[in-house]
Amino acid sequence: MKKLIYLDNAATTKTAQEVVDAMLPYFTEQFGNPSSVYSFAAQNKEAVTLQREKIANLIHAKTNEIYFTAGGTESDNWAIKATAEAYENKGKHIITSKIEHHAVLHTCEYLEKQRGFEVTYLDVDENGTVKLEDLKAAIRPDTILITIMYANNEIGTIQPIKEIGEIAHEHGILFHTDAVQAFGQIPIDVEECHIDMLSASGHKLNGPKGIGMLYIRTGVKIRSFVHGGSQERKRRAGTENVPGIIGLGKAVERAERTMEERSRKESELRDYLIERIEQEIPYAKLNGDRQNRLPNNVNFSFRFIEGESLLIMLDMKGICASSGSACTSGSLDPSHVLLAIGLPHEIAHGSLRMTLGEDTTKEELDFVVESLKEIVANLRSMSPLYEDFIKKQSK
Ligand code: PLP
Question: Is the CB of 232 inside a 6 Å radius of any atom of ligand 1?
Answer without folding.
Answer: no
